[in-house]
Amino acid sequence: MRKQHLMIKVAFSQHGNAVASLHSAIPLLKKRMEGEGIDSVAFPDDGAAKRFAALFSDMDMEIIICGKTRGEGDERNVVVQDGN
Hints:
Layout: H1 3-11, H2 26-36, E1 40-43, H3 46-52, E2 62-70, E3 76-82
Parallel strand pairs: 1-2
Antiparallel strand pairs: 2-3
């Protein structure tokens, strides 16, 4: 068994009558964003946008997708690939 699978198995192994319950903080984040007047959400890459952008579809949010580009040597730059 690979280490990642073993970690998941250990994290969710409960003893007795305990039941694991997973929750998301996205509803709390959305309330906070509305209260602060935030009108856009930026994702670090296309994969994150594909996974999480639908959670903000009920809000009128600008979706921004970023990416990394390589510069000279070890230099990395973050650029906006999609959105304003």
